[in-house]
Amino acid sequence: MKRKNTLFFLLSMTIGLNSFAQKTIEIATKNNVLILETDRDNTLLSAYLGKKLDNAGEYPSIQTLDKYKPGSDDLLNKREAYIASGSLNLLEPALTVTHADGNKSTVLTFSDVKTEQLDQNRKLTSVILKDLKYNFQVTLKYLAYFNENVIEQWAEIEHKEKGTVVLNKYASANLTLSGKKFFLKNQYSGATREMRSEEQQLLHGIKTIDSKLGTRTNLLHSSSFMISIDQPATEDMGEVIAGSLAWTGNFKLDFETFDEYYLRVTAGINNFSSNYTLKAGENFITPRFIYTYSSAGKGLASRNLHDWARNYQILDGKGERSTILNNWETTYFDFNDEKLNELTKDTKKLGVDVFLLDDGWFGNKYPRNGSTSGLGDWQYNKQKLKNGISSLGKEATANGVKFGIWIEPEMVNPKSELYENHPDWIIRQPERKEYYMRNQLVLDLTNPKVQDFIYKTVDDIFKEVPEVAFIKWDCNSLIYNANSPTLKNQDHFYLEYIKGLNSVLDRIRKKYPKTPMMLCAGGGSRVDYAALQYFTEFWPSDNTNPYDRIFIQWEYSYYFPSIAVDNHITDMGKQPIKFKTDVAMMGKLGYDVRVNELSKNDLLFSQNAVKTYNSFKDIIWHGQQYRLQDPYENKIASIAYVNEAKDQAIVFNYHVATLFTNGVILPIKLKGLDPAKKYKIEEINLYPGTKSPIDSTKVYSGDFLMKVGFNPEANAYRTSVVLKIQTI
Predict the structure, then answer these.
(1) How far apart are CA 481 and CA 569, in angstroms?
(2) Which of 107, 148, 347, 681 is the most buried (most CB within 10 A)?
(3) Angle CA(318)–CA(319)–CA(324) in degrees, nearest 5?
């Protein structure tokens, strides 16, 4: 009898075990892997994110190490891959839904998985989750970039319920990380003080970073971040996840620790004032959340993102860029044909590629002679430009340079013909006082007529000036009193605005696919990878003081490659022009200077600097970046760019100590070189009449330079030093 009971028990156990088949889903890149698994309830779990195992057959064993046991005390330990609210989950959800019958409970279970090899480097995994009670479906998309070790993740939501469904929250991704401690590196900002860095341990509760600003969405907080696991990572050591949300509108990033050893990252559109009514059969697609894992510190995570961005996301990321002379700080609003024609000659004299005409060239009934009028009236000012902007383009061509122009097409001044003629095109609350930021309001891009107007504004510039070779697209106001005069459902406003903006940019890029465009928003307040699929570059900050810019550009470098970062030499700051130029070279070089007022030596230096920059810019734009010494903890900040063949490198060194000191400055250890190769080091970009103390005849092994280092001899007297390292 006892033997029969034992056999019955074993048979029952076998039937029970076979009643559910654990599904293991592997989303792999060259070095890393994300493992998703189903449990006994057919719930999809995040099992592992980290380095690939040598034996892929061991991935199913990960779940057996999880001590989750169904029961009221352990439900928080269920690490769902995309968490819905209203049932057993009591933590911050990725998805909150009000179903057609009013029920707010959603339970997602695994249904199917499909894979598609898009090319040799990219593989798309689609995981279908369904609510068995409702005809409701979420498809999780994972696009893995093999060589770049980057994953894009997003969700597609649809239903066939009888009636409409309201999406109350609809994040792009949940990411569950395991570890003993978690440290968040993020950046906060303000006008002219962008990308201030902070790093903190994530303790109990939720840390939320978000934006409700509508347009300049990164003005207060960046939508990119890094998470270190167990301890704060350094440049070259520690586990790091770097993430960035590709969305140009309001965003929300939630970081929630739970059950002692887990962190849940939820990233997506900010659902603030944005319930979305989803019709049956309609497919709601969230923006993409981009992330990478590094087991070798923050530097590798940055290089992963840079490689991915150049290869796949930034417009013409593997191409060239134009150097620029901008007239803004030379003339501001005070110019005419004669002044501008002289500036095109100065552009040629300086040796840069493009003369960029900034704000103030438009408006007639309300001339744009200051920031209070004319915005929205995109006809050239006949008093300033008697021959029109077309003649400026021809003049630039005649002088052997290209012509670029500034626009701010999403905005309007109350003192403008556009405001008078189309009051229904403007975002504002009815019967409430208008609030102006920088004397302007935002046009209603949810309105197709406004979209057509903005597209026509850009198209007309190209028609009038076929030679136009660069566009600076500005965006200086936030959205206050958010309301569309024509949109039927105001809950859709913030989403429809971005959809309208992207629609305009899609149309522009379809007709003008290659013209470089700079993304500007009162500084770097609108920087994300969704926008950078339309723009070749962005303006990091209106603060062009080179000392401050070292820190600003340093922080942007964690997420964005140098080819996308515009750096201009201006009159801001009391540093010598060499220091300003050396700092600006750490990206895409430009000028906002009065060329005709430069001293003889400053002009000669600048002309030579442009030639020097042109000789190595390809390494800056397309090489691998290595942050060698950070400006926060060292007297000398140092950053290097190494080409693919590892036979050339450019190293920028800046003296950033605020107190005068004669203390010892140690050699700086280089990175990214070939240890077996032999290198010579030469100081370049010298100011006329100066001599370098660097011995350019001496030979070093890459091994020596990376283990022992090299002293650039930067100090309070030599405040910036640029080194060229090349093999012999």
Answers:
(1) 37
(2) 347
(3) 130
Q: Which two tokens stand for residue 647?
A: 């036979």
Confidence of residue 197 (pLDDT cuts 50, 70, 90): very high
DSSP annotation of 245 reads E
One-letter amino acid for residue 463 of the chain = K
- Assign residue 481 a region: left if phi > 0, alpha if psi is -120 to 50, beta otherwise? left
- 33-40: long-range contacts at Cβ-Cβ below 8 A with a sequence spacing of 24 or more? 33/59, 34/142, 34/151, 35/59, 35/62, 36/81, 36/127, 37/62, 37/63, 38/110, 39/63, 39/68, 39/78, 40/70
pLDDT the model gives residue 3: 44
Kindly tell me the sign of the dihedral angle through the C-alpha atoms of 299, 302, 307, 308. Answer: positive
**Helix 448-464 / helix 388-398 crossing angle, nearest 10 deg:** 50
Tell me the C-alpha distance between 218 and 313, whole Å: 19
407, 461 in Cβ contact below 8 A?
A: yes
**Token pair recorded at residue 59:** 């991935």
φ, ψ dihedrals at 390, nearest 5°: -65, -35
Q: What are phi and psi of 628, to 5 degrees?
A: -90, -50
Report the DSSP beta bridge partners of residue 325.
355, 591
Maximum Cα interatomic distance, the chain, rounded to a whole number of Å:
109
**End-to-end CA separation in angstroms for the chain:** 86
Beta bridge partners of 137: 130, 158
Q: How many CB atoms lie within 10 A of CB 89?
A: 18
CB atoms within 10 A of CB 671: 19
Partnered with residue 658 across adjacent β-strands are: none
Tally of CB atoms within 10 A around 703: 13
pLDDT > 60? residue 32: yes
CA–chain centroid gap for 160, Å, is 36
pTM for the whole thing? 0.95
Q: What is the mean pLDDT of residues 417-435?
A: 96
Handedness of CA 643, 647, 648, 651 (dihedral sign): positive
What sign does the CA torsion over 148, 149, 154, 156 have?
positive
Can you tell me the distance from the alpha carbon of 77 to that of 71, in angstroms, rounded to the nearest whole number? 10
Per-residue pLDDT tens digits for 596-640: 999 999 999 999 999 999 999 999 999 999 999 999 999 999 999
d(CA 224, CA 245): 7
Q: For the CA atoms of 485, 487, 488, 491, what is the dihedral angle to 10 degrees? A: -110
CA distance 228 to 241: 7
C-alpha to C-alpha distance for 616 and 625, rounded to whole angstroms: 14
* Residues listed for the chain: 728
Written in H, E and C, the secondary structure of 288-336 is EEEEEEECEHHHHHHHHHHHHHHHHHCCCCCCCCCCEEECHHHHCCCCC
What own/partner pairs with CB < 8 Å and gap ≥ 24 does 378-385 have? 378/407, 378/409, 378/457, 378/460, 378/461, 380/464, 384/335, 384/336, 384/337, 384/360, 385/336, 385/337, 385/340, 385/361
4 phi/psi in degrees, rounded to 5: -65, -45
Following DSSP, what letter does each residue of 540-609 receive, concatenated? --S---HHHHHHHHHHHTTTS-GGGBEEEE-S-SSS-HHHHHHHHTSSEEEE-S-GGGS-HHHHHHHHHH
For 498, half-sphere exposure in the C-beta direction (CA atoms, 13 angstrom radius) is 23
The whole-angstrom separation of Cα 121 and Cα 128 is: 23
Supply the DSSP symbol for 52.
Answer: P
